[in-house]
Amino acid sequence: MNAFAHLPADEPLRETLDPGIWVEARDKDSRSEDDRQIAFVRRIKRDCRGIAIHAVPNGGRQSDWARIRAEKMGVVAGEPDLGLDWKGGAARIEFKDGREMPRQNQVERLNQLHRLGKNVAVCRTPEGALGWLASIGAPV
């Protein structure tokens, strides 16, 4: 018997996050994803001089022309929001608000990076992100 017989034939299988990817627990804090990310970036810039941080502005709506051009220039759908680099290490963080989970293209990209041996996480709070970074050896 086919193990997938119970699934609708026209619905593709959805990839889930690899078990090794750290995901911060959901919360009831009303802050938006953007506000949470801004607070984290502010803390890194203020307190963690040994970490270089950059945002990846690939979200938001854009025209078909702009999207196609961005793809040609190397923009990858689902790329995590933040890149962090320090001497001897690096990480990528996808920030989410208290309720949301990564979209399918983000799941696929996070899994791809994780399978390449990269440090990736889904974080919701500055404290959670800093704790995870400390756990992987970042100078926080």
Indicate the CATH class: Alpha Beta
- Largest sheet, described in full? 5 strands, mixed
Strands across the major sheet, in which order?
A: 1-5-4-3-2
What's the architecture in CATH terms? 3-Layer(aba) Sandwich
User: What is the radius of gyration?
Assistant: 17 Å
Choose one word for the global shape.
globular
Averaging pLDDT over every residue, what do you get? 90
Total individual domains: 1
The topology string of helices and strands comes to EHEHEEHEH
Number of helices: 4
**Fraction of residues in H or I helices:** 25-40%
Task: Please report the distance between the alpha carbons of the first and last residues.
Answer: 52 Å
- Quaternary structure classification: single chain
CATH fold name: Trna Endonuclease, Chain: A, domain 1
Beta-strand portion reads 15-25%
Judged by helices, strands and strand pairing, the structural class is alpha/beta
Report the uncertain regions: none
Features:
globular, 140 residues, Trna Endonuclease, Chain: A, domain 1, 4 helices, alpha/beta
Short synopsis of the structure:
It contains four helices and five strands, in the order βαβαββαβα. It has 140 residues and is an alpha/beta fold. It has a single domain (22-135), classed as Trna Endonuclease, Chain: A, domain 1, CATH 3.40.1350.10.
Tell me about this structure.
By secondary structure, the protein is α/β, with parallel strands linked by helices. It has one domain: Trna Endonuclease, Chain: A, domain 1. Helices cover 33% and strands 16% of the residues. It has helices at residues 33-47, 64-72, 104-115, 126-135, and strands at 22-23, 52-55, 82-86, 89-95, 120-123. A five-stranded mixed beta sheet has the order 1-5-4-3-2, with helices on both faces. Helix 3 links the parallel strand 4 and strand 5 (120-123). The radius of gyration is 17 Å and the shape is globular.
